[in-house]
Specification:
This protein is an all-alpha fold and about 70 residues long. The protein has one domain. Helix content is about 70%, strand content about 0%. The chain has 3 helices and no strands. The longest helix is centred in the N-terminal third of the chain and has 22 residues. The mean pLDDT is about 95.
Length: about 70
């Protein structure tokens, strides 16, 4: 798996987790989904993503979006 796909898969899991937790535990868990969305927006403009840095450190092959 390349870095771009790993970051997108992780973001999708965070969004889904936030939705499930907001429906089953407490409505304020929707903030996790909002945080993930805001992070994806800022990463699209800046090219900087904390998740990409973590995946790079774990040895995931670089892709084209996050170098």
């Amino acid at each position: 798996m390349i870095l771009d796909r790993a970051v997108m898969a992780f973001a999708g899991c965070v969004v889904l987790l936030g939705i499930v937790l907001s429906l089953t535990v407490h409505p304020w868990w929707i903030a996790l989904t909002a945080f993930a969305g805001l992070n994806m927006i800022q990463a699209s403009f800046t090219g900087w993503c904390p998740a990409a840095m973590v995946f790079k450190a774990l040895g995931v092959r670089p892709g084209t979006a996050f170098k």
